[in-house]
Amino acid sequence: MAADYQAPTAVKPDLRTRLQNLIPKLVLSPSLALILVFVYGFIIFSVYLSFTGSRILPVYDWVGLENYEKLFRLRHWSIAIKNLGIFAGLYIAICTAIGLSLAVFLDQKIRGEGFLRPIFLYPMALSFIVTGTAWKWFLDPGIGLEHTMHLWGWESFEFDWIKNRDFAIYTVVIAAVWQTSGFVMAMFLAGLRGIDNEILKAAQIDGASNWNMYRRIIIPQLRPAFLSAFVILSHLAIKSYDLVVALTGGGPGRATEVPATFMYSYTFTRNQMGIGASSAVIMLMTIAAIMVPYLYAELREKK
């Protein structure tokens, strides 16, 4: 009987099924090809340029790590790194705090949540150029907040941070926090709505106060949201260019210079393409150092 058994043969898909499987690949292939060339191809090209003596135009004379040595000896690069540390630290911390606070506020099932949520999310719909331009007008002592207060009779009011070397970087923080806090709120709100209510009811029955519930139960379960917020805010901070250019132009002086504006300046203004490419590679490595562990952890959890 065993010798007479024949395994079922696989049914070949008909032409319609094969076309249905092939069409999505054909539709996506041009986009994939463009991404490979204009994203990953130019990343590889930039890495190569960072090891060459390129100036106003690319050249292919290999100089090794010379550009990186010059980069870390430049005072302008040190200033850019320092400003990035101040900006990124405050930006991430304040956005996380405000986003979590707004999410907890909206999670109380308040009236008008459907009206308030779009208001908090609206700034994220704007580009950083628009945000920077609007805040530049608002903070300009000649036409913005300080001028308005003087017209209202408060002559002693002063708010000239945008023109002050010591405080200009904090105006960039203010504008960036205003733009992104609503998005962080949405992430935390989704995390709060995903917590099992049975756990919270059991804690309430055991007599847990609201403070202890948030501190011991709710906040620990928001770990994925905290991690996602950190990754997104970190890479936004590192590659921040348009907001800084629109708001302060990197000034006054170099008070708001960051690696992204440094890279553009040295590549296209100072005609030091090799050094500009090396600064871009440092930025890429920093973002990769944040993203790769996050992606690895996510993929590992899914498996």
From TrEMBL:
It is a multi-pass membrane protein. Gene3D superfamilies: MetI-like. The chain crosses the membrane at residues 26-51, 84-107, 119-139, 167-192, 222-238, 273-297. Its main location: membrane. Pfam families: BPD_transp_1 (PF00528). Residues 81-296 form the ABC transmembrane type-1 domain. It is found in: Cell membrane. InterPro entries: ABC_transporter_permease, MetI-like, MetI-like_sf. Keywords: Cell membrane, Membrane, Transmembrane, Transmembrane helix, Transport. The keyword Ion transport does not apply. Belongs to the binding-protein-dependent transport system permease family. This is Sugar ABC transporter permease.
